Amino acid sequence: MSDQKERVDETLSAEQAQSETAEAETFDEEVVEMEVDSMEAEASAQDLAKLLEEAQKKADEHQDQLMRAHAEIENLKRRHTQEIEKAHKYALDKFVAELLAVWDSLELGNAAAQDENADVAKLREGTELTLKMLGDVMTKFGVEQLNPEGEPFNPELHQAMSMQPRDDVEPNTVVAVVQKGYSLNGRLVRPAMVMVSQAGS
Fold it and tell me: I need a labelling partner for 122 at 20 to 30 A (CA). Which of 29, 152, 181, 198 fits?
């Protein structure tokens, strides 16, 4: 009986030893797995940190580019505003420079007319030349004179002062121009003041 007990004890001890060995091996495997998982997690954290750092660098670069673009747009706006102000301020420079010659001519004509011995024929000639100079300047800058005598009445360009019964011309024809009209680059500045024919009685 004691032999049997010893065998049972030996069997139990052997089983217990095997069980403990199996548990130790399982524990070792779990520890190794945990270490591997920890290493993988550490490597993954390092990769994430690197990716985050790269993303932060790109974000900083984009922020810098955005700030530069914004500053450049502000500079362009400022320059554009200054150019518009200058354009408004000095838009008439060339026109005024051309008109100065006409002004000079008028002053010379006026001074000549003050002389008691002034030659009327020369004064007329000077006035005609001055008018021609003025007409040339106006044409150069797109100012067109509207002198519609003999033309059909056009309410967009003409302003009727009165109607005259006429049998010698078609009705609604401009028969006299009281004041000439003007347009600037095709846009009406002042309508021509005219007298218009109507059918005779």
Answer: 181
124 shares its domain with 176: no
Residue 157: how many CB atoms within 10 A of its CB? 16
Q: What is the pLDDT of residue 7?
A: 63
pTM for the complete prediction? 0.56
Long-range contacts (CB closer than 8 Å, 24 or more residues apart) made by 55-61: none
DSSP output for 2-57: HHHHHHHHHHHHHHHHHHHHHHHHHHHHHHHHHHHHHHHHHHHHHHHHHHHHHHHH
Instruction: Give the C-alpha separation, 201 to 197, whole Å.
Output: 12
C-alpha span between 131 and 125 (Å, rounded):
10
Of 192, 191, 201, 151, the C-alpha closest to 175 is 151
- Domain membership of residue 33 as a residue range: 1-90
Confidence of residue 65 (pLDDT cuts 50, 70, 90): very high
Q: Are 73 and 8 contained in the same domain?
A: yes
